[in-house]
Design goal:
Length: 232
């Protein structure tokens, strides 16, 4: 309780007025203390959106996640994404599907100001889309190139270890993380005019060719996530 206010109350001669002022000062101090404690209270639930997913050229969509903190050091997060180019950014046409993920976090420090963590996540992606490419029937005979369209059906399992940080801003939170892991891709291509034709690809590795590579194989996974949400 501020000393100046107590001095002012002490100089008031009317007992009723003094009692009223003293009650007001006490209630104001108690209210301030309660609000201060509430602002420092750990909020255990988070609902977040992934803005980078909206502008991902190869896997665009709307992804929402829910996270629950428990046992003072851990949290579990589940995520679901509706994969579709909602803002018109996509390297493919008629892209659609779903993405599911679960992540377990271990917080190195868990406070109301900054929370750094390690996590392990598992992700499943199932999408299909149409694409086009340049093909040749026989490269040895130098046959003419032609353009053809095809359909891609892709499934992916990914397992990652992530290092991240959460920045709480009152009832809002920013969650940043970067990880590394393995990804198993199962990609099928149908609808070609000639299934034995050979696609012309770039001489140098690029994301476009890697994203549409046909077959079942392992590859590296480097997830970068930015999530913004509301905590309660």
């Amino acid at each position: 309780m501020p000393i100046r206010l107590l001095i002012i109350v002490n100089h008031v001669k009317n007992m009723f007025t003094k009692f009223a002022l003293l009650t007001f000062v006490l209630l104001a101090g108690l209210t301030q203390q309660c609000l201060s404690q509430q602002s420092r209270q750990m909020l255990l639930n988070q609902i977040k959106i992934s803005p980078l997913r909206l502008i991902d050229e190869f896997n665009p969509g709307l992804e929402l996640s829910y996270e629950r903190i428990y046992a003072n050091k851990f949290s579990t997060q589940i995520a679901i994404g509706y994969m579709k180019p909602l803002v018109g950014i996509s390297a493919n046409t008629d892209y659609n599907g779903w993405r599911y993920g679960i992540e377990e976090k271990y917080f190195i420090n868990l406070s109301t100001r900054e929370r750094s963590y390690w996590s392990f996540d598992a992700v499943y992606l199932k999408v299909n889309y149409n694409n086009e490419g340049i093909f040749q029937q026989d490269t040895a005979l130098n046959s003419p190139e032609y353009k053809d369209t095809y359909h891609i059906n892709k499934r992916t399992f990914a397992f990652n270890i992530n290092r991240g940080m959460q920045i709480p801003l009152n009832h809002f939170v920013v969650d940043l993380s970067l990880g590394i892991g393995i990804k198993y891709k199962m990609t099928e291509r149908t609808g070609l005019e000639d299934i034995h034709s050979i696609e012309s690809t770039s001489r140098h590795p690029n994301f476009y060719d890697m994203a549409n590579r046909v077959g079942n194989y392992f590859t590296i996974s480097i997830p970068l996530n930015v999530r913004i949400g509301y905590q309660f």
